[in-house]
């Protein structure tokens, strides 16, 4: 790597080789979260990663630029040397991509403007190869479901359960897609078994809810790991992005789609996402511990009909109430009634009204997204404060006859 004034980050490989031929020891995911994407900073004389907001980059060597662009068009490999243009790549975004790939245990990662832009790129790439058929398992995030069902990108979907994946495959199947834990029911799938059922067809796992802190699907056979980086990876509700962690072959066609369609991640978003990764393990574990205690209390509350929480843990809770879920939403005071998840503050929403409203009502119900289901994204507040708020909101939605009994049971 040329450690000049221009930040042309392409990972730590060249710098490490220059320092020593001895490979670095394997590092804990907690350590990777802090250091991945930052390995070259000391050699650059920096402590914080630089933020490169350039849209274009000067170069007097137009013949060389032509050759690099030809190589990218032919293979989709990241151009060697200095950046060319913001739509081809950005050094700050490349740092985030490298760090996320390290955390997910994949060769590469390709970042996009949003999670939906990332999924769209996958579908476009498979379609361009003549493989437009997708096999998918419900539930998925509502907009992912809609994108597949509506065929907006020319794809055709067959919905099935995990046991039916092998039978649903066709010669033109280009992708199998699952989300585990699923949005919003938190249903879990055996990734290794699903990957086996896929045969040679690539498996895409939406890992947004679990994050690489709780599971790493690539190590269980998934070829593509999707994140709405807006959620836990960013972690503070102030940045939007999407990313696909994958093998380098897949990354090459995803980069070509990103270049052609323009769904690039803004450099400032890449900077914030890299910063978010550094605290990801701490945030996920702290919120998960609080969620586990709230699950225990909700499960014992007579105002609550059912509670769902993943076996692998996590900070997401789905629960159904006996009373009016809309009154619960209206009744919270500390918890934020809003769509999205993964922030430092706790969010609650009614999936049938918001995140999954775009899914056909019958399909929603068949996937377990009932009209009384609420989804809670647990943040970093004190558990007693959160429970006090939930207790009051559940009382507002339960009807007078259940309020006293519910509070007594909660004690």
Number of strand segments: 12
Question: Roughly how many Å apart are the termini?
Answer: 61 Å
Biggest sheet architecture: 7 strands, mixed
Give the percentage of residues in beta strands.
5-15%
Mean pLDDT: 92
Give the count of helical stretches.
17
How is this structure best described in words?
The protein has 411 residues and is α/β, with parallel strands linked by helices. Helices cover 42% and strands 14% of the residues. The protein has 17 helices and twelve strands. The protein has helices at 13-19, 29-35, 41-44, 62-75, 91-104, 115-128, 142-150, 165-168, 191-198, 211-214, 248-261, 267-278, 280-299, 325-331, 361-366, 383-398, 400-410; strands at 108-112, 133-137, 156-160, 173-179, 203-206, 224-228, 242-246, 304-308, 316-321, 336-337, 347-349, 373-377. The chain has a seven-stranded mixed sheet with strand order 1-7-6-5-4-2-3, sandwiched between helices. Strands 8-9-12-11-10 form a five-stranded mixed sheet, covered by helices on one side. Strand 2, helix 7 (142-150) and strand 3 (156-160) form a beta-alpha-beta unit. Helix 2 packs antiparallel against helix 5, helix 6 (115-128) packs across helix 11 and helix 14 (325-331) crosses helix 16 (383-398). The protein is globular. Residues 1-6 and 12-22 have low confidence and may be disordered.
């Amino acid at each position: 790597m040329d450690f000049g004034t221009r930040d042309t980050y392409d990972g730590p490989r060249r710098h490490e080789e220059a320092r020593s031929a001895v490979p670095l020891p394997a590092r804990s995911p907690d350590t990777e979260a802090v250091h991945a994407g930052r390995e070259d900073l000391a050699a650059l004389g920096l402590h914080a990663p630089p933020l490169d907001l350039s849209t274009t980059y000067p170069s007097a060597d137009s013949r060389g630029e032509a050759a690099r662009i030809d190589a990218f068009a032919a293979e989709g490999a990241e151009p060697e040397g200095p950046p060319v243009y913001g739509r081809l790549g950005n050094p700050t975004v490349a740092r985030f991509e490298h760090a996320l790939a390290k955390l997910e245990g994949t060769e590469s990662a390709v970042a996009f403007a949003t999670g939906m832009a990332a999924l769209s790129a996958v579908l476009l790439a498979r379609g361009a190869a003549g493989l437009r058929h997708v096999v998918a398992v419900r539930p998925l995030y509502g907009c992912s479901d809609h994108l597949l069902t509506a065929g907006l990108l020319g794809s055709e979907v067959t919905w099935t359960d995990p046991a039916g994946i092998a039978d649903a495959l066709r010669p033109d199947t280009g992708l199998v897609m699952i989300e585990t834990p699923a949005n919003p029911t938190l249903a879990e799938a055996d990734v290794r078994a699903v990957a086996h059922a896929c045969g040679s067809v690539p498996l895409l796992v939406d890992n947004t809810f679990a994050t690489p802190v709780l599971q790493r699907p690539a190590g269980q056979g998934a070829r593509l790991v999707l994140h709405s980086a807006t959620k836990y990876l960013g972690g503070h509700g102030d940045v939007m992005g999407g990313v696909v962690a994958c093998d380098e072959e897949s990354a090459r066609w995803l980069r070509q789609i990103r270049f052609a369609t323009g769904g690039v991640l803004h450099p400032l978003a890449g900077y914030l996402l890299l910063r978010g990764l550094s605290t990801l393990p701490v945030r996920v574990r702290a919120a998960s511990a609080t969620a586990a205690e709230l699950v225990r209390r909700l499960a014992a509350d007579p105002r609550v009909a059912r509670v769902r929480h993943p076996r692998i843990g996590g900070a997401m809770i789905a629960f159904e109430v006996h009373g009016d879920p809309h009154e619960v939403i209206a009744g919270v005071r500390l918890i934020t009634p809003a769509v999205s998840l993964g922030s430092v503050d706790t969010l609650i929403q009614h999936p049938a009204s918001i995140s999954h409203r775009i899914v056909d009502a019958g399909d929603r119900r068949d996937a377990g997204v009932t009209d009384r289901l609420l989804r809670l994204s647990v943040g970093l507040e004190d558990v007693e404060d959160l429970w006090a708020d939930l207790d009051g909101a559940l009382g507002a939605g339960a009807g007078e006859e259940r309020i006293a009994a519910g509070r007594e049971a909660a004690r």
